[in-house]
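Most newcomers find our protein records easier to grasp once they have seen one. A record pairs a protein's sequence with a compact description of its fold. An example says more than a description, so a record of this kind follows:
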Amino acid sequence: MTTTLPPTRPAPGVDPARWPDVARVPDVPLRAAVAARLLRRVASRRGLRVELPGGRILRPAPPGAPVLRLHRPGAFLHRVGESGLIGFGEAYQAGDWDSPDLVALLTELATAPETLVPTGAQWLRRLYVQRPPVEELATTVNARSNVHRHYDLSNDLFAVFLDPTMSYSSAIFPTGPGHRPLAAWNGLAAAQHRKIDRLLDLARVGPGTRLLEIGTGWGELALRAAARGAHVVSLTLSEEQATLARRRIAEAGHTDRADVRLCDYRAVEGRYDAVVSVEMIEAVGRPFWPAYFATLDRVLAPGGRVALQAITMPHARMLASSRTYTWILKYVFPGGLIPSLRAIEETAARRTRLRVVGADAYGPHYAETLRLWRERFTERSSQVAALGFDDVFRRTWELYLGYSEAGFRSGYLDVHQVLLAREQGAP
């Protein structure tokens, strides 16, 4: 497999102003040679079928094996050689490779990823692993720009693939034999309501409850809490989300019960009987977890409860990735870190009077939620293009959704609903 490539040859069809590191193809022949050897090892150990241009096969693979189809092998190897998994992602964005079943391939690669590189070659990580840039650290100054880069892309974009509730977090589906989620598009809205209602029940939200929501989304949780008779203050840093959430609340006739504010969680004031936050802690960043939990403790009234929904990963993996700049951070969710359940427990215990008194996992439900989103996004790619998003953006989001789904299918990721209360009020 050739690894030579002129350093000035750009990726075809990629706007260098919009996607500079995707358009640029590096010229690192020695690292590309190492990447080629690593690819052969991974293909052999994981049983992958690697297809090359002209119908050639890198090495035989069993029937039904996950397929990595290389369209530009040289560009792929030079990208991976220069920047590892970031280069792997940028190669997909550029169209250097694809797969007829992207999730199957990524699930195989996400299973025990620490075994992909031989133990004796782990030092190679130093050649390409970067630290997250300081300008993306989720300070009060940077957090708004981080949010803007994702959630303010376009409300119409999210409406392309989300269900009518506009819920952008894991649903909880009915289950069948073996507790398998029974997921279908026509049941997604009900599954999102099941998730929201369970969180509101955990926090004991009912008539007259003073509820703080950290992370508005597009307002569905605030709507359902207001319908229960609660008085809701909901915080967001996304102007696009705030605009649509306020409109939806007004159309439902709940403006007297739900107040959406453009406000950083660190600046919130008041006392609340309950706090609910859905998949927002991932954007907080590890240095600010103490401030996040201190805020929960500060605003919670005596006897109050906190219900969180959080994507999680095993603690050792979290520690290993906490200072690593990843493709997801670079192109999708800047400034964040997925916590472990242990990190949530320990940060709350060390910094606050709050304790975790219950946690339930729903990882397979998130895999199915992401599958439904990914399929709808792919089916409606023409609508995405009509909104002004180019092919590189489409491939970026296909990889993001597929990568995330694979994380939950492999067990690399999980999602928990977590209940916290003060020690004296814990059941």
Observations:
- The chain has 17 helices and ten strands.
- Residues 289 and 347 are 7 Å apart (CA to CA).
